Amino acid sequence: MVDLTLLTPELTLVGTGLVVLSIGLFLNTNAKKILSYLASLGILASLVLVLTNLGNGGMLFNETLSFDALSQFFKIVFLSVALLVSIASIKYTEGNSHTEEFYSLLIFATVGMMFVASANDLIVLFVAFELASLATYALAGFEKKNPLSLEASMKYFMIGALSAALMLFGISFIYGATGTTSIPGVAENINILLGSPIGLLSVVLMIAGLGFKIALVPFHMWAPDTYQGSPSVVSSLLAAGSKKMGFVAAFKVFMVGLIALQAEWTTAFALLAVITMTLGNIVALSQNSVKRMLAYSSVAQAGYITMSFVVMSKTALAGAILYALSHGFMKAGAFIATAAVIYMVLSEKKDSEMPDHIDNFRGLGKRMPITALCMTIFLFALAGIPLTAGYMSKFVLFASTIEAGLVWLAVIAILNSAISLFYYARVVKYMYFLSSEGEKIAEPVPYTVAMIIAAIFVLAIGFWSEPFIYWAMEAAKVLI
Amino acid sequence: MAIENMAFLIPVLPALAFVLTFFLGKKLPNGGAIIPIIAIFTSFVISLLITMNLLQNPGQVVSQSYNWFAILNVGILIDPLAAVMLSMVSFVSLLIHIYAVGYMSHDKAQPRYFAETALFTAAMLGVVLSDNILQFFVCWELVGLCSYLLIGFWFEKPSAASAAKKAFLTTRVGDVMFLAGIILLFADIFKIFNGSIPQGVYVLRFDEIFSHIPEIAALNTQIFGFEVSHLTLITLLFFGGAVGKSGQFPLHVWLPDAMEGPTTVSALIHAATMVTAGVYLVARTFPMFIAAPYSLLIVAYIGAFTALFAATMGLVMNDIKRILAYSTISQLGYMMLGLGMGAVIGITAVGDSLFHLINHAFFKALLFLCAGSVIHAVGTQDIRQMGGVGKVMPITFATMLIASLALAGFGIPGTSIGVSGFFSKDPIIEAAYLFGESTENWFPYLFSIVAALLTSIYIFRLIFMTFTGKPRTSYGGHESPAVMTVPLIILGLLALVFGALTKTSFGNFLKETFGNNFVSIDIHALAEMGEYHLASHGSGSEPLIILWMPVIVAFAGLLISYLIYGMRILDMSSIVSRNNPIYKLLYNRYYQNAIYTEFLAVKVVYEGLSLAGRSIDRGFDWLVNFIGHIFMELADGLRQLQTGVVQNYATAVITGVSLLVILLKLIMEVF
């Protein structure tokens, strides 16, 4: 009999998802609000279970799943983001007859991400990856009467399918050469791939497949369209959660499985990191859609995190892992704040062309003070202003880069941060320094609750960063 | 729950009051004044209870530390020094808040006023109970910020806005020095530990700093060819901060201008929440000062000189608040001098100086509140337009008279008869005499005794001009309401008897500051390091004439003032004229404005540096705009790549994969 204690968080989530889905069949639309609370509770319970299991570790199912500090850390990231999204969606799904589908998809996507975090085998990793991906494809197209949402979903799906093919192609090469799909097993039998063109090819294919989720340039092009077109709460899940799944998978595949090919992938990641952060930041400058701006910003942030693959020191990894956590809160919060603004715009004018246009943020400081304040915190955090989580993560990451002697990379990253301040501060300027005729409106409670939770964590990590850094350090030890 | 565990509430409650008043004040009567009053009252009660506990058992101080990050902490330290300061600050601030309910009743911006004064008080309380120099500095800066906001409270008045700026910028000069001192100190301690700090050691906590004094003193740096000990350097940088905050020469120029705020704010700044921070900083780090050669001497000289210098200017001012402002500067000079006298009397200096600080807080707050009461009633600040106010405002007159007697220091040496200022100023002057005796250096003593004479003259000039004689202009004065007079009476009583009641216990209590469960310091050993020769016998054994001298000059001052301004026997018109160069020099305040503003600020900084900088800046502006322009163009160009056609995206992915393979292959071949 296998001891399933370690698996209880995942099982809880699956159970919640199924219950939500099946109860939803028997409820009329007005009563479905209960489902959103139920789902949020389920996610919270799962989060609590992960937290209570923090000290325990081990392997399950013929060592295809591993539970360690790294997987626990990322599970907490995914569950926190899912919880924020789920709370915010209480408002979003209000009066929608497909509430149960939304929530079960959200939960299954989260389950997929959690299994990726625990995967110790390439096949398990791939299947879990696809579980999360398929659920999010459907979520992106959740507003099926909205052409933008459908377009977002279709583009996401097509590029996703292509990337999945590439990744599977890469896995097949690796399996062919090493005769195993177990990630530690790959590392042991890597000899045949060393210095061979097959090794190079499989590295590139894996980068392409995972780079799709991470949104590395040039595999990022779906991201702006999808983030903009999908419902904001879903963009929040994609940018804050799904992207981190790409990172944890990449950590496992490259730093554990393909560590012997480090020379190859370090070079590739160095190149991609620089291109990604530069392109993301520069294109973000000229965006007028706030969601699109946030999309490019998250492309840029992916570039920063990717630096850790180049530096490859324990501090750098801790920085990257901490960044994943911080980015989860800041990006999820920023998208939820945008969702609140969109809700405001749409409730005033049903057929607004671009409800997330930056003009709609005018005078937000007066119209929705809490939203504006939280949004300011998130934007400043994303820009890396001190006393926020964003600053602390950037500090650890950049400092480790300098420590490792890669001053050029740190300089590029710091210059990029400087550029990014422009477009973040621009939104703050619109919110506080420009006035609007609109009146003050009541801020929807679920959005506000989710934002405040996220803001508290953004500030807490910034102010009381030591335990978080220590914790990220523990997670990093799993890899190096 | 033990009262010590509530110590953190002392600064937290006023800070909370700030938030509440700021947001809810509009909806409450009197601008929500009741919130800060209750909060500060509670802080005062807690402070007082802790002080009483400490009095029972002075060796057991309150010390609580929590890890902040890495090797730094946040914490609370309430030793005798902090305890008396906490009680005084919260008490005086409480009275001023109550008084302000009446004084500010006509102002529309009451909520902002009470919110800001609450934060001001919270920041000062934070300074006082910090157990490490970094937290101290953070609160110190917060004090500076609040002073800026409050001096510029009536910001629509250009003079208030510029006074606020002046205060902020001038104290900033000192703050930068203070920060530089902290950085140097941190670097030194880091060096002493060879970069590896053991677990649980907080490097900037005072006990840690004090335990490394000998090692810091051993580090030297060459400056202009002189070997200077780091300890001297650090203490002088700290003292630079104190000079700025406590209005010592030459950074005192902001304090008279700070009168532009409401009078209650002046009272807060002068008595409780701001200027004393500098003195407190030196007292707090006294073990470092006494171990650093020359530092205490510089403190003493600057203090003595400031005491005299400010008193001379106080003689000729006609604005009632400005006279008091110069008097504050002068009295702060005495406190600094008192600390500097640690060079001869050791640890007793801290007690002497703090005793004067506390007494001064009472009588100076009283002086300001009385002045506010007069201004409130008469509607002018110019004493030439007053006269005879004492008849319409008897309570104000009586309390103001008490405060003036306290300031001038009347009393009988060797007995317990005297006003509070007498018992605290005398020991400082006597210590200066001892210093002269043991070092043959009589300047501090001369300065302080002459300043005492001038103090008595200018304060009674104010009294006679304002309260006696006949009204020189018609004003419809009336006594202030009870909410204003009751604080006056309470402060008056304290100014009258506090000194006599606590003259011996206070000093004994403060002696425990550096010998308890938190720090235990051998001051004599440190003084030897600092090459100061402590006198073997304490003060009090001087010739009789020396003991009586301060009182004699105080009476002489009263007499001179009475003859000139009360009886008008001596005609001053020949002296008080623009043709008299000395009067002109004083009246123009030693041309400080010309030197600081017109020469330093306008000529050197603005026309010299700033205009030169502007042309350089223009170049940079162009460059920055150009770079920005490039990036925006680039952004517009690059976003064209995003066609929105999904086929193109797929092509990009495949192209990316192919290019990566080729590039990697090439790179791997080359290396």
Question: Can you characterise this structure?
Answer:
- The complex is a heterodimer of chains A (480) and B (671).
- With 480 residues, chain A is mainly alpha-helical.
- Chain A has one domain (5-479).
- Chain A contains 19 helices and 2 strands.
- Chain A has helices at 8-26, 33-52, 69-92, 99-118, 122-140, 147-178, 183-188, 197-214, 222-229, 232-257, 262-285, 290-311, 314-348, 364-367, 369-383, 389-403, 407-432, 445-463, 465-479, and strands at residues 58-60, 65-67.
- Chain A has a two-stranded antiparallel sheet.
- The longest helix of chain A has 35 residues, at 314-348.
- The two termini of chain A are 32 Å apart.
- By secondary structure, chain B is mostly helical.
- Chain B folds into 3 domains: 3-587, no CATH class; 588-637; 641-671.
- Helices cover 71% and strands 3% of the residues of chain B.
- In chain B, helix 1 packs antiparallel against helix 2, helix 17 packs antiparallel against helix 19 (394-408) and helix 19 packs antiparallel against helix 21 (443-467).
- Chain B starts with 8 loop residues before the first helix and ends with a helix.
- At the A-B interface, helix 6, helix 8, helix 9 and helix 11 of A face helix 27 and helix 28 of B.
